[in-house]
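Q: Could you write out the predicted structure for this multi-component system? I'm mainly interested in how the pieces pack against one another.
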Amino acid sequence: MALLLRAVTWGLLPWRSHCSSAPQRGLSKGFVEALEAVVGSPHVSTAAAVREHHGRDESMYRCHPPDAVVWPQNVDQVSRLAALCYSQGVAIIPFGTGTGLEGGVCALQGGVCVNLTHMDRIRELNPEDFSVVVEPGVTRKALNTHLRDCGLWFPVDPGADASLCGMAATGASGTNAVRYGTMRDNVINLEVVLPDGRLLHTAGQGRHFKKTAAGYNLTGLFVGSEGTLGLITSATLRLHPTPEATVAATCAFPSVQAAVDSTVQMLQAAVPVARIEFLDEVMMDACNRYSKLNCSVAPTLFLEFHGSEQALAEQLQRAEVITQHNRASHFSWAKEAEERSRLWTARHNAWYAFLALAPGFKGYSTDVCVPISKLPEILVHTKEKLKASGLTGAIVGHVGDGNFHCLLLVNPDDAEELQRVKTFAEELGRRALALRGTCTGEHGIGMGKRQLLQEEVGPVGLETMQQLKVMLDPRGLMNPGKVL
Amino acid sequence: MALLLRAVTWGLLPWRSHCSSAPQRGLSKGFVEALEAVVGSPHVSTAAAVREHHGRDESMYRCHPPDAVVWPQNVDQVSRLAALCYSQGVAIIPFGTGTGLEGGVCALQGGVCVNLTHMDRIRELNPEDFSVVVEPGVTRKALNTHLRDCGLWFPVDPGADASLCGMAATGASGTNAVRYGTMRDNVINLEVVLPDGRLLHTAGQGRHFKKTAAGYNLTGLFVGSEGTLGLITSATLRLHPTPEATVAATCAFPSVQAAVDSTVQMLQAAVPVARIEFLDEVMMDACNRYSKLNCSVAPTLFLEFHGSEQALAEQLQRAEVITQHNRASHFSWAKEAEERSRLWTARHNAWYAFLALAPGFKGYSTDVCVPISKLPEILVHTKEKLKASGLTGAIVGHVGDGNFHCLLLVNPDDAEELQRVKTFAEELGRRALALRGTCTGEHGIGMGKRQLLQEEVGPVGLETMQQLKVMLDPRGLMNPGKVL
């Protein structure tokens, strides 16, 4: 019973389709009518199914439905919605594609979920300046489809086909970050509706440039703020030239250490690897089954190189020398788009391949990031702890960044197992902190890592973050219960 | 007389070695003794010569001396100094190498200048993790000398041998930014003494990682804050592998447009150029004279490429095709270190070469940055305006970033000319804003661009910045009169 209670405290139970029956503040009929007056009645819903759909993301956190969902059509409506909620003290939860992994959209205090996906214009594209302005309804894949013929692309790739503004809000990254950086590096400007409805352009209205030294970096402040400081209604993003040619590869290693050593040596040799992903033997086994691969069941690197034909040849040759020096085997190069796509689809489906190991179970992903020199130590430690815990887990990692995910299977009806998952994840977070790392490389703090954040940034860091929150959201209405 | 008054308002007169006799609050004997009690009496000075030396940077802004200069030896002393000043309402001005260009160290309200250069340790170096922790006394060149044998370097290069913590404070960049980014991209963590003496580690004490999504980006907030939010007492920086080989080159163009077109085309072709600098014909003439070069007196690009021998060969070949397509001439490649050094020394001495055109005159540098597609337009416009203004000016630019400097010669005794320089610089700033750019790409706002900052970020942006200032520096003591 004690375990059950603790699991409930973590917001885990029940995490299936049933929604929380925790006390909700509810919205008056007058308030719902006021929402309708802003966006039009077809764009407001209080239906249970709609609220449930908006009360959870792809994580194991249980559903916390908002009291109402609204679909604004433009930034002016967002502004008016914010001002309305502000005046009435109603919480606001911004919603993009709902593909987050830290419960970021859970409406812990009810309130109004602002689904921004009807704002889906690519407002402008400046190919010569390598920049684009997108609204929240534009996803990563939609943007890259739009860009297909102009020789540019947006490389940040968290796997899910997420909203780009949502990716800015969570500070997302993914498999390409080792070469192209994260959202922090690729957002030039943001249009933000502040909690009271005022419109802020973090780098000045309509501006886009490669660099600036003008005043405080407001763009950087809102990237990764997880919807707790305002609603992002458009993002100006940095684009990159489409690689002339691409080669993917996999190779197996005798140990975790050998795979990580190869990674460090490639970075030291300045091989501009575009992706370098680690999968442990459990994950490889799952991927072989799920994606019909025939890879060695061993610690494996998935690699991708971008460049001219000539540059690629050299990169590949260097990578091969380094990996072979570290006793890699089962090299498999994939040059053709189809074969590359098969490999990377398998990598991106790792989550589903893992879940397929135990139908009916749910998954949870840790997200620590450590200095790369500490990666072998923490990976080996994690695998030992996993064994000792009796949990089923597998590891995938953006090793070039020192960031990895331990995916855990859990029976949603087993409170004791839920508790073990929680304990395991927290211990892993603390281990990363002890190794001078961070509890989250890319998923964000969300609901579950607030305690770890405190330990990570210390009392003055936390106090400064709390001051920022109070300064920008004095009534505490923006996505309450997240981050802090 | 009206002109003279306006020039004084801009803080320009007198800008030579005489210090301002504007009213200063002065410090009581007791307060100076309290400073001595913190850092030891040899590390406090109220001598006029010392105060004058600390009252100006390398810009044309006139000297505003502090009331006292202190040299703390460690972070604990910095903390106690801040707490002391905070309790007594005395202004603090952080001082590194004094190589800024926007009057950032001018003590506009007197107060205590905190010279941080006695804190000059490289606290730790983590070669495998590509990171280093430096104190404010460590300059860019000192760090790179220290790194010489470990295969790594710190690429951000503003020209001056500035303090790295000072570079973080001003959000510096320079010639390598097109490939390696600015300080915004290369600072991992900062140790900051807040105005009341509390110690903040922006990313958590001792932490260093490639990426994080943990809470609000405090590191980003302090990079570029120009000493107005706290004193940076150490910086954790991202290092990069030393290039295997380097080639430099110059080539002349028939027009500004042709030089910029070449730049855009190289970026579009993903040629990973490490530096791409534009110098106009006036500047080339000055460099030829000053640095004994024999370059064509025409719009010119200075280029540098980093990579393996094989990669370089391809980069050079591509660059040559692109530049020749744009009718470049007078190609000159420099492979040997000595010859490269001669070229880049000439580029970095451009400022002095320019000043040498008119001995006794002073220089002022503008710093706008625009979307690269607007660069030809604003460069041509600037040259026309320069001609019409009767001022002597030359242009150097980090064209890969859309950032350029118009250097202006001015007779320090000619109030009317000073006013023309001011008017010219403000008009150029507004032109950049109209083209959706920024009034400062890398020098910062300092004293002179506060009005332009307001126009750039708009009322809500400015209000948000003011809120940040009040939140972190409620008594307004940190480097008053700068940025806002």
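A: Regarding packing and overall arrangement: The radius of gyration of chain A is 22 Å.
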